[in-house]
Amino acid sequence: xxxxxxxxxxxxxxxxxxxxxxxxxxxxxxxxxxxxxxxxxxxxxxxxxxxxxxxxxxxxxxxxxxxxxxxxxxxxxxxxxxxxxxxxxxxxxxxxxxxxxxxxxxxxxxxxxxxxxxxxxxxxxxxxxxxxxxxxxxxx
Length: 140
Description:
This is F protein. By secondary structure, the chain is mainly alpha-helical. The chain has one domain (4-120). 50% of the residues lie in helices and 10% in strands. The strands form 2 sheets. It has a two-stranded parallel sheet with strand order 1-2. Strands 3-4 form a two-stranded antiparallel sheet. It is globular and about 55 Å long. The two termini are 29 Å apart.
């Protein structure tokens, strides 16, 4: 079953290129799809499309990478890239196809989409009208 609310949440996000995650304010993350140091809209769109596909098809991390990497390689995004920080003018080395970066993109976006879907489902339900929060340390 496709988690429809999670898919809707990701689809409604607008593309927002940003050099650093700090360049996007907390509230903007709710409506913006961003990946640190991905400044090109077409690359950012490819990443968002891959996340949407992963949610729609229930893809694993390895399937996500397998589908996204050929697109990145075709557009020249492999290995080391030099990105200029607009604020400082400094050139920074980035490995956009590094396994840890792709894992972060996949896990962060899927987790936030699924949690948004779960929140909406709980909030809209008459069966559970109250929500409680717990710190992670309290759940262990």
